[in-house]
Amino acid sequence: MSAAMAAKRGAISLTGITRIFAGTIPAVDHIGLEIHPGEFFTLLGPSGCGKTTLLRMIAGFETPDAGQIVISGREMQGVPAHKRAVNTVFQSYALFPHLNVEQNIGFGLKMQGVKAAARKKRVDAIMELMQIGPFATRAAAQLSGGQRQRVALARALVNEPEVVLLDEPLSALDAKLRAELQIELLRMQKRLGMTFVFVTHDQHEALVMSDRIAVMSKGRIQQVGPVLDVYEKPKNVFVAEFLGLSNIWAFEPVSAHEARTAIGVLNIGETLAGPGMAMIRPEKIWLYSDSAFAAGRPNMFLGKICEAIYMGASTQYRIELHCGEFVTAYDTNNQAAERSWRPGEAVAVELKPENIMLVEA
Amino acid sequence: MSNIPRGIRRGLFGLSLPVYALLYLPLSVIAIFSFAPSLHHPGINAAAYGALFNDPLVLAALRRSITLAFGSAILGTALGTLMGFGLNRFRPATGGGFWAGTLPSLIIYMPIIMPSLVFGISELIFFNLVHEYTGLLSAGLLTMGIAHVTFQSPYVALVVYARLTGLDPNLFEASQDLYANPLKSFLYLTIPVVRPALIGGFLLAITLSIDDFTISFFTAGPGSVTLPIYIYSAIARKGSSPEINALGSLMIATVIGVALLYYFVTRHQQQRSRQIPAVA
Lengths: 361, 280
Fold this sequence. Notes:
- Chain A is of the alpha+beta class.
- Chain A contains nine helices and 20 strands.
- By secondary structure, chain B is mainly alpha-helical.
- Chain B contains eleven helices and no strands.
């Protein structure tokens, strides 16, 4: 392997990828992406957005109707799934029912012609790492959901692939186990340094695990970027709403930094070029008692609490402003929070200009 | 079951007794009468069994039945397995559509639904026609074998198809993903996971063939009398006899034996693939 290729090991480059199933609406529509070596990359989107189809094309189970897939510097057109240095963790795990745990994990090595002794060594090592040694001789059907998930992951990792593809691997698990495995998966990925391409429809999971996220909708990529950017600076209304609750208003510019919205005139940090949409996340809204209201202070409004939903670490408030519009705000429940509010209480809210983002419709 | 009122449960149990009686009493009658006294052997005895194994006609018929059963079952299983795979690949749910999915499956199942009388007669006419014009396929074990394969293979196809639909479709992709080329995937995944269905289909094909009278009767030739045909003609000539009862009893024992064999062969595999509740 040349130095240039070594540098690209685990990199994926997609150009103009299109896949059209029966009918005319593309499942995947001209997708271009650069996935860097060793990063945890997530394809996030609602069901039917084409994320799984895209993953299946990288794995070699589907052939793109147009476009180019390059993995580790090699063009993949015409390369069948069994010749790609890529391994998949399936949503259904797809463990072989006629083999026990050990044999399941060793399957890929056996198919590559690795001798029994060397195979056993590598299988034992990965079972040790994943803490599944005690189940080595059990049949797949005798394992719990979490154990199956570990075996499926071990079966992929033992081959030391350039890229690991994961198709909603945690969706069948209960919340607690899921949270544990998210962290475990992440540690494993950092430790082994392999590129992980992770498909999920769960925005929380995507935020927890990813280095970068591509948000998909209707076969197209809406936004790609580091987790923080995608959440804090969503490009459009779809991304803003898919990644979490948000307050969004249409506006008409009054001046370069003033926008007229349904709740009143807002000062906005960014420079306004024309009419558009303004967005602010609920946790970026400041809540005060109404006595703190200072008339004339920009971006401050009076209102009253109409709903308070206690969520443990924070409380979600729905506030009706005097103008009749509603805003949603989060307040943390730690000591730093001024106090908690009850429905009916009068409050003042402040939307700081630097926290208001412009988004495309 | 336990929430059904006791009265109804008892009623259902009572109702099931005559059903079991109708199913199994005639079989027991045959077994009992095979030990009945006959002309040369007064008193209850097993002479009929001895006579059976000394009768060259019976032994020849048995040999033909077994040859026919194994020969047709091997071919029927091979063909039926391929049909099962085809049905699975193009099943309507996975985009086979009418022409590629529904229609072929109807055609494949037709021999199961078709009355065997109609089936037998049409085979007879067909083989006669072919023989008339080509001189090939004169009535005999070969024509019987072909006819048996045609009705065995749909049953085998059904068994194999049932096994395949019960499998996670991602399994085959998983094997490709783990560096198995199509041949290796077939050898190390497909064959092992469908093995119980292959064995089950094969045993089913054997019992279907040994048991068949109607279709065999129409496709048989002068020198190809199998056990069921022998039994029929023996009864037609001189009515029931201890020898015929003994032969019937042996056939019942064979079928029960095959059923038990199938159970023990597939039990292990079924246990493995059954969902067992999580252990810690």
